[in-house]
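Example record for the data management plan.
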Amino acid sequence: MAIERKPIRRGGIKSAGYDRGARVLEIEFDDGSVIQHTAVGEEIKAGRLRNRGGEPVSKPITEGLVREDGKILYPVDDGIPVMLIEESIELS
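Corresponding structural encoding:
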């Protein structure tokens, strides 16, 4: 499956894309490595996704900032990044 990625070029991330139908988030790093996170959205819908503070994530995440190592996502709410550790979400 080919996911159209958009250039990011910051924080070690070269590009990122999301396939809404397949619910796959794909991130390409500056070193050329690519990771995919599957079932994005299903965990929220089922109430299984929790932030690092232990609270369930209850609303869809339409934007986010991914840490340079690709392991943590900080949600963006109404165009404002929420950079609180307890609101961040582990990706791997």
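Summary line stored alongside the record: Residues 6-90 form one domain.
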